[in-house]
Amino acid sequence: MHLDNVSEREPSSARQETWFLRSAAALLLLTALAKGFSAFGSNSILEKPDPVFWVLKNRELLILVAAVELAVAALLVSGMPLKIRRGGLLWLCANFLLYRAGLWVTGSPPACKCLGELAGRIGLSDAQASWVMLGILGYLLGGCLFFVRRSRCHRILEDFSDHHRGGPGIRAH
User: Fold this and answer.
1) Which one of 28, 60, 74, 81 has the lowest number of neighbouring Cβ atoms within 10 Å?
2) Domain coverage including residue 28
């Protein structure tokens, strides 16, 4: 790999990351809509306390998480720097992982009701819906970590290239 070509690949790299962030925003929009739709349903589980956030009813938590997903989706398609957008998505994914860990610690069924009533309406069992949501989480987290790593590698290569060309990377001793 020739280091002078690193900056030539940068626009393609940014386009790929922009496409990923837009797809992530679309997924978050869909899951937020599913949560919002379910939160206003009549299922009795909505009035029960959430097993992890026991101070909130399931209905309240669905509404709160849907709002957060919408906010992160808006961030992902905003003009904010890529670093901030990546950070927002990583933060959300970390919270989803922590919630899943909380379900495990409390001994609750591992199938979360992330899609609410929508899962049943499209013919998915709770377990299947949970696997779908884990797949989405894997896509979001894996994609985000991939682009974080790629960004760090680009910076390291640029610093290395600048250092060997006598650019800003050289420090006076």
Assistant:
1) 81
2) 3-165
